[in-house]
Amino acid sequence: MNDLQPIALPGVDPRRPLVIAGPCSAETEEQVLDTARVLAAEGIRIYRAGLWKPRTKPGGFEGVGEKGIAWMQRVKRETGMYTATEVATRRHVEAALKGGIDLLWIGARTAANPFAMQEIADVLRGVDVPVLVKNPVSPDLELWIGAIERIHNAGIRRLGAIHRGFTSIDKSIYRNHPMWAIPIELHRRLPSLPIFCDPSHIGGKRELIAPLSQQAMDIGFDGLIVEAHCSPDCAWSDKAQQVTPDALAYILRNLVIREQTITTESLNELRAQIDKLDDQLLEILVRRMRVSRDIGQYKKEHDMPILQAQRYEELLARRAAQAVELGMDREFMRTVLQAIHEESVRQQMEVLGK
Ligand code: PEP
Ligand code: MN
C-alpha cells in the first residue's frame, strides 16, 4: 500500500495532529449547529456527527438518518468546516456522498464484518473521498488490515485508520482497552497509512480524553477524533465520554506534540548500542539452544523424558524474582523465559527424533 495520499484537505493545516471533533450523534439541528459553531471558533476544521448509530440493543436512539444531512450542509455553509460521518451500508454511503459529506468513517462493528466492508468498498469504487476505518471490536489486526485492504482495492487512496480500542474480558478503567501494541504493529505493517486515535471510545469517560490523547501523541499518531457536544450530560448517546467544545480546546492546547524526526548524534549512538546488545542477545540465545540440544542428547541416551516440570517451574520463579530485583517487569520476564523454554523443548524434540 505505498500509493496512499495524505488525508490533508484543502485549507487544513497538514501538521500533526489533524483533529476531527463533534458529537457522537447528530440529535437536532440546533445541537448540531451550536456545537459546530463553538468548535469552528476554536479552530477545529473537520466536524464529526453520527447520523446512523449502530446500537448494541434495539430500542435505543438509532440516529436521525438522512434528515441530518441537511444539518451537516448548514454546518459546512455557516462555519466552513469539513463534515464527517459514519457509514455502515451501501445506502449510507450513497446518501452521504450525495449530501456532500467530505469524509467517511467505518465503525468498529462494521469493520468486523467482511460482507459489510465489501458492500461499502463496492459502492466506493471510482469515488475520491477520504475514508477512515476503525479497528474491529476484537483485537484482530488481520481483520482490521483486511477491512482497510478492501477499501484500498476499491481505489480509495486518501485512506486512514482509527484506533478506538478493543473489547477485552480483563477488567480495566477503559471502555475499550487501548492495546497500543496493535496500532503500533499496524503502523509497522502499513507505514504510510495515517492512524488517528479515538480517545473518547477508548476511555469511555471524559476524564480519560486528555491522558489518552497525550499518549497517542507521544507514540506518534497522526490525528485525533474526539467526541464533543454542546451539553454533554444531555447527549442522546455516549454522554459520559463527551466534552464541551471549550473543554476540548483546553485539552488540545495542553497537548505536548513531539515532532522531531531528525535523528541526532546521541540518538544514533544509543541506537548503535542497542544494535550491539541485540547482537549479543542473539549470540547468547544460539549458545543456549546448543546446550539445550546437548541436554536433549543426554536425555535420549538415558531414556529420560524432555519435560522436567519441577525444574522448569523453579527456573521460571527464580528468574522472574531476579528480574524484579533488577528493576524489570515480572510478567515480561516470564513471557521471555516461556518463549525460550518452548524453543528449547522444540530443539530437544528434534534431537530425540533423530
Ligand atoms: C462513534 O464513533 O460514535 C462510534 C459508534 O464508534 P465505534 O464504531 O468506535 O464504536
Ligand atoms: Mn460514540
TrEMBL record:
GO molecular function: chorismate mutase activity; transferase activity
Gene3D superfamilies, sorted: Aldolase class I, Chorismate mutase
Transferase recorded as keyword: yes
Protein name: chorismate mutase
Enzyme class: isomerase
Protein keywords: Transferase
Organism: Candidatus Alistipes intestinigallinarum
Domain named Chorismate mutase: residues: 261-352
Listed EC numbers: 5.4.99.5
PROSITE patterns named among the record's database cross-references: CHORISMATE_MUT_2
One GO process term, biological-process aspect: chorismate metabolic process
